[in-house]
Amino acid sequence: MANQDDQFKKVISHAKEYGYVFQSSEIYDGLSAVYDYAQNGVELKNNIRNYWWKAMVQMHDNIVGIDSAIFMHPTIWKASGHVDAFNDPLIDNKDSKKRYRADVLIEDYCAKIESKLNKEVAKAEKRFGEAFNKEEFVSTNQRVIGYQTKINETLSRMAKSLENEDLADVKALIEELEIADPVSGSKNWTDVKQFNLMFGTKLGASADSAMDLYLRPETAQGIFVNFLNVQKSSRLKIPFGIAQTGKAFRNEIVARQFIFRMREFEQMEMQFFIKPGTQKEWYEQWKEKRLKWHLSLGLGEENYRFHNHEKLAHYADAASDIEFNFPFGFKELEGIHSRTDFDLSQHEKFTGKKLQYFDPEENKSYTPYVLETSIGLDRMFLAVFSKALEEEQLDNDTTRTVLRLPAVLAPNKAAILPLVKKDGLPEIAQQIVEDLRWDFNVVYDEKDAVGRRYRRQDANGTPFCITVDHDTLDDNTVTIRHRDSMEQERVKIQDLKDIIKKETDMRFWLMKM
Predict the structure, then answer these.
(1) Which pTM does this prediction carry?
(2) 89 exposed, middle or buried (CB, 10 Å; 0-12, 13-18, 19+)?
């Protein structure tokens, strides 16, 4: 755990030092769990959003996008169940006065057991070498089986208690597991209570006539209430999808782990409308499609896994998360949910208006079922950024900090460096910048020795450094250096565009799917 904590601290520190993420309102001592994306962070965030939008919307004939308002009619949240059921289980420690999510305390307890389990596997792997059979070891080693059984039993009991709203048993489980307050070590807990996560606000100029509103806690409902408008105006036939990205707001009990859990965050969601009875087939298809999208970025197949929900949301008949191996362990990155016809049916019930699709093949109308894929943009940012950050040992016994961002997502695709600030080299470098910036985000860098500039661009995640030297004056060639391999080659200035495009164009990345 100590190594994980150290790595996570490096991620947070690097994000600030290199202009990716700042604490919001920092000069006023900050605002808890609210962050600002800085000059490089906003570029990376936009690139992730565009990569998702291209794959999800523009590469599909039957998926379109919308951008619905953050303010919505308050009855929408009654219909969707958020007013009554959008709660987290809250528990306070009587001694430290700290507040926690009860389910997170239990999940963290299980994560510690999983860490012990992984250590056992790693020790055995070291002992047996190439002859090691992981599957056999995990299924036969009594200590590992004991750890896994404890995890399964604990999570299963918690899921059942939460589903039955048996909050007394959730507290009993915390006490039986002897879970202590992470701050004080105290085990003196209050009862578990439900806490609604929605932020309230008001609409209207006068206090007497102002309407109570909520900041939306998810972007999905904006899609559902526009279902018929989109279908009729686009003449789409089922199956079809509606996607959107946008801000959502949740008053988290304990917002933590940097940008992993924030109070103001951004979602990328797609609701896929299907014929009732076909949801299992589409559920499996979208699980496969979404994992392929993640894998196309090359962050390592071993860093992803599916986690099927034991406790299903009130609207779902199947749910699974794509979990990612963050610096603090495997956590949810994207959810794939079979939502049945719950949302559209609820809005029909509360409005008295039909939200149905007339199927010309079946010659009848029905309320479609929905398959949802929902990913947190901020979590995706953290996944990409944390996995990219490396301290690399070099052959000459030195280390370099390198941010191996997928080139398609990198904020700057190339840095153009004049070897010296004289002899006409800066002018040629500036001309290259002017030419390339029509197609790519590029930067000009002339400060410090060229070796230090290379290191700075490595740490900033820039895939290419292009150096203009005295030979450029004679033959119109430059040195292009590759971030990951540090290899350098001499190329013609007119070839730069094609070289950069080949490494950074979405086409070459998404075709891996």
Answers:
(1) 0.85
(2) buried
